Amino acid sequence: MAKLKTGRHTSALKELRKSIRRRKQNLLYKNKIKQIKKQFLESLANKDINLAKELLKQFYKIVDKAAKIHFIHKNKAARLKSNLSKKLNTIIVSQPT
What we know:
Blueprint lengths: L9 H36 L3 H20 L5 H21 L3
């Protein structure tokens, strides 16, 4: 491809297209992580343990995928998963049998 009349290089235009695609994908991961975390915390507040366990599985899956594509760092992914599992375990332990 040749240079455009405006003086912009085609490589810069391609990078722009790539960054737009990456932004869309990153926003999907960001919103999904926030959404599942919010639902998880609401289920804990309502003492719905079974729903919380299912949401925790979904959260693990989406966070691992985000770490795999380097949207978040692997240590942050581990920290997020650890914090939510601790919250679930404190609810399970505090419940009478």
